């Protein structure tokens, strides 16, 4: 079992784009979701797949179990998706030694850009990049499961 300790932010400017180190095309969907627990399948670059179980509803920290699964099985599981299949491109961007994952959503969620910072450390506001907007850590409407089942939250639209 691992602990996922992350902060989420809306992205307020495109200044991060010239710092991208890597890009991953992601299709992900949920086969189960309820408050405090989700079961997700993620396909990365059409080449690999993972099954992820997340538990907990604390703002910054949740228990996470993640397993590689055969790509063909992940594609089969898509028939059991609840809500929409999320399409996004994840960009790896470093700032002051920290790795930010900037997700640019496509499809029905086009226009939404969220950055995540996974670290157990408390990163002070002055250490955060200028291109980050409002912090949305703990706001469940910005969790991917909520985006799959609902849509773009009003404040981000």
UniProtKB/TrEMBL annotation:
PROSITE patterns cross-referenced by the UniProt entry: CYTH (PS51707)
Transmembrane intervals: none
Name of a matching Pfam family: CYTH
Domain CYTH residue range list: 2-149
Active-site residues, as the UniProt record annotates them: 30
Superkingdom to which the source organism belongs: Bacteria
CDD domains: CYTH-like_CthTTM-like_1
InterPro entries to which the protein is assigned, alphabetical: CYTH-like_dom_sf, CYTH_domain, NeuTTM/CthTTM-like
Name this protein carries in UniProt: Adenylate cyclase
Lineage, opening ranks: Bacteria, Pseudomonadati, Pseudomonadota, Alphaproteobacteria, Hyphomicrobiales
């Amino acid at each position: 079992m691992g602990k996922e300790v992350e902060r989420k932010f809306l992205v307020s400017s495109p200044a991060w784009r010239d710092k991208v180190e890597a890009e991953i095309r992601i299709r992900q969907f949920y086969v189960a979701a309820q408050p405090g627990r989700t079961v997700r399948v993620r396909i990365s670059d059409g080449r690999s797949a993972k099954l992820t179980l997340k538990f907990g509803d604390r703002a910054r920290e949740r228990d996470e179990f993640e397993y590689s699964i055969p790509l063909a099985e992940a594609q089969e599981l898509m028939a059991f998706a609840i809500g929409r299949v999320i399409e996004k491109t994840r960009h790896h961007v470093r700032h002051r030694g920290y790795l930010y994952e900037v997700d640019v959503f496509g499809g029905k969620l086009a226009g939404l850009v969220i950055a995540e910072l996974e670290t157990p450390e408390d990163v002070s506001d002055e250490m955060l990049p200028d291109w980050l907007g409002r912090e949305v850590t703990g706001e469940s409407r910005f969790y991917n499961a909520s985006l799959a089942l609902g849509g773009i939250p009003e404040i981000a639209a």
